[in-house]
Write a structure and sequence with these properties.
Four copies of one chain form a homotetramer. The first copy, chain A, is α+β, with helices and mostly antiparallel strands. Chain A is built from five helices and ten strands, in the order E-E-H-H-H-E-E-E-E-H-H-E-E-E-E. Chains A and D meet through strand 1, helix 1, helix 2, helix 5 and strand 7 of A and strand 1, helix 1, helix 2, helix 5 and strand 7 of D. Strand 5 of chain A pairs antiparallel with strand 4 (about 115-135) of chain B, so a sheet runs across the interface.
């Protein structure tokens, strides 16, 4: 044969799962978008059309809903571990990766306190969990799990304590140096929990996530930023300072430029008050910071 | 000539305006997307290519930024009135309509209180204001203003107290009657303030908006919904009960269906706990409720 | 009662319908997104929660699929007439409006000619049809139909023969006059067929649509444009010159600005060769041209 | 220090470039979205806020426009090589990656042939080129280049010759086996050209791209598909059969499910004619096929 199969994976994406737990006092609402992806002994499906090893993606979808019935009772990471172990136990699977995006809902506020059964979707961010579990090829035992968490689409702005100067200049450089600018970005942050967390049992993923989020936001507010690059380093360090179980943090930050409007043609000054927000083009900074062992 | 010009308007859309007011204690951040649209004596531009009456849309953009320098200090409705009067005073203009969508930002919470200069974009809803001002053709005087407000993209869910039964059945009807379902929708609500509000002077648009929003959410949480149609009536009435300056409320509500998953093939029951969220197709209900004079 | 119900309508949106007709030689693929909207005697559903007159939106969806089985064999307009008459015959309905967006697919080209059963989606435009049929309240007879057609999302560009000069100047005007610019827009065009077309029987909606599209594109290529406003007039006139059954044409055209890049800081000229394409903000021109009776 | 910087890169994304070459007979229109991304000696920017090595992303944008003036005269791959070598020559850069997405425009057809200066954007696909050039740290010499090409967003459908059967069944499997189904997908295909292509000089990237696209579409139309996995293998092999300079092909294919509608409640059969198109959830298959050396 002239060709060979290289890296490959397959799965079901955008499985939309909503659960309502109907407690005596109030309802609990959860809202996830789940992606399942498998790697393993699937070469025959590609090269000879033999589907014997293939778990149908429709079955993946069914499994997510069926396991959600009884086992989705804690953090998304724990449900991801349940799903990951289930799929990794399939004999053909060498790795199952479960990505869970949780959409937040807050309770409507009433005079007597939070409503028991009415909710508003909070669009501030999407909480992210990603769990991968290794499978033993040809066996139903499962190997160690790897748990990542984070969030997407948290849009933030610093209206001062941000500068950009001292950068390289060449014949195509026209950008002036600025010692006070707006810095706005839509944060995607992912972090990895230390291997050997006892597979999540007894570990409070919600509390760890909340400590990480809080540390990032405080750091955002307090640090002086000489560049988006430096802000990643500072905020990632703050996350790991705050949460010892996190081994690394990756951030991918667009620089959502806000340009000061030149009002001088209209006889007006603009002392850092009026800006045009832009989305295109945008800077894009991607960096990972590791805890030293 | 065989053809005649009918209804027409033109303007600039998606003018992105961000302002930072730098107070001694803390910064104030505002974020608007503004659309300007004009109607008037623009027939010659269409039929003979004579642009003499045409205010360039680039000029509209400049005007929004220039007026924002000093006059965007209160609610979006008040800034819309400034802009509307400016454009209505152009001699060719018979009506200027300004639509302002405000994107909310909240302060990062620190130990010592809210941050003075760091913000998180709150994606819960977009606040809407729409102001139209009549112009006197051929003169620079302006006529009365009309002010609408509301919001877009407030996604909400009731996990009980929603039913749908007693509807018409024909040979294409398969939907069962249900006395307890999830009801989810993304609310677009617009309301009109009473004419004769003294052009906004002395009227607190922020407080009125907040009363309307609060009334809608409380009503959402508390009422029993026999249909989305009935919910619009109930929530619109609640808004007008709470805010006497509002003459009418229009809501356009998609019915974002959540289907209970049949888990019986897997030997599981599903007592209203596991749902698939869908976006397509969706019901769409559009109704306006008026205060009787 | 303090409140009264004003304008209202409801329906099902984004019903995704794909049909494959399996001819002996080749398959015929159609792809529609259908919206159904009803007006009529639905006040009780709003004000008293009485759903007796309400056709469930789920029933609307079922009806679209069921009628598609045998009756979707011609142009979208004809299928819209079938659906419109069906719903207008419901006793509570005073008007049924059916909007059909058709997504084009072309055949894969093979050496021996077009493939019989493999297709590529052509993203150039979305064809639009909108049919409304009046119902007789309390009766199952239906009244006259109104048929509109058009398209959405046809993005076009003229690289010359477009200017913008002679416009009004005030203190906020900085735009220079230009006698040669790029003009780019994403065309939404809708037109209305003459009432009294015998309800579509014997009328070739496909041929009329094609004549209108061709006339618009030729006119786009050939005319000199002193403004987007004038281009609407010219292109709408060309459509009606080409197709006598069309009574009016409405176009809503964003002005997708392409700004010439100033390359002089880099020692380079730019004789109308290098542009930055922008999407925000954009001009927006909306006008309707009527055939004189 | 407790932390160390791991993988990192930065750049400018979504640089929108349109060029018009004004030939004596007709204009030539090109439309690109360009992303620039650099890796190299940028640690100090992160860890100490020292920007001395940092090429501002604004400079990247300027460079794209300036080089486009004279050097964007051939295929996107060739312009990517120009840009990649320019940035790789910066002393801090170890790798420059340029991603170019080209949006197609076709000429308006007139009676006398294609229009010289009026264009329609063809939305069928986005052509992709990605060039990476290695830099010598601390020097302005550049190393070898790597060129990839492909396309995104080509939506296709097979209305027969697609099946899915013989797959694994477990207690969560409800999907029936089918020997004739619709297969629809939105193709993202990327391929790598053989290293040692003399840096693009003398190589006809347009012709190679066109051979690859044609081979993929023919293969799509002609092969029997036992699964999406097998289709990737077959189509990737066809691409490499047709174009000997391609060493590998990667495809990422969503399975855009079309479900046959059950019309039996309405007394109708459905012999593979009426389908509901869905987007969520969807299967997702990702595989790379290599040419054996």
């Amino acid at each position: 044969m002239s060709y060979s199969l290289g890296e490959n994976r397959y799965g079901k994406s955008r499985i939309r799962l909503v659960t309502v737990r109907r407690g005596p006092e109030r309802h609990h609402l959860r809202d996830l978008t789940v992606d399942v992806s498998l790697e393993g002994d699937f070469g025959a499906a590609h090269t000879t059309g033999d589907n014997a090893n293939v778990v149908a993606t429709d079955t993946m979808k069914n499994t997510v809903y069926a396991l959600a019935r009884d086992r989705f009772t804690g953090p998304a990471e724990a449900f991801g571990l349940e799903l990951g172990r289930h799929f990794a136990a399939e004999s053909a699977v060498t790795r199952a990766t479960i990505t869970l995006r949780e959409h937040g809902w807050s309770r409507v506020e009433l005079d007597g306190g939070p409503a028991p059964d009415a909710f508003v979707r909070s669009g501030e961010l999407v909480r992210l969990a990603r769990v991968s579990v290794d499978g033993a090829p040809g066996a139903s035992s499962v190997g160690p799990a790897n748990v990542e968490a984070g969030f997407e689409d948290l849009t933030v702005m610093k209206t001062t304590k941000s500068a950009f100067s001292g950068f390289a200049r060449d014949r195509f450089t026209t950008l002036p140096e600025v010692d006070d600018r707006l810095m706005a970005t839509k944060i995607s942050a992912t972090w990895g929990y230390r291997a050997g967390l006892p597979d999540g049992a007894g570990f409070d993923f919600d509390a760890a996530w909340e400590r990480a989020r809080t540390a990032l936001l405080r750091s955002l507010a307090e640090h002086f930023s000489p560049s988006v690059q430096a802000s990643i380093w500072i905020m990632a360090s703050a996350i790991m300072d705050a949460e010892g179980s996190i081994d690394w943090v990756r951030m991918i930050l667009p620089n959502l430029h806000h340009w000061s409007v030149d009002l001088s043609p209209f006889g007006l000054d603009n002392p850092g008050e009026v800006f045009v927000a832009t989305t295109e083009p945008h800077g894009l900074i991607d960096a990972t910071v590791h805890r030293r062992s």
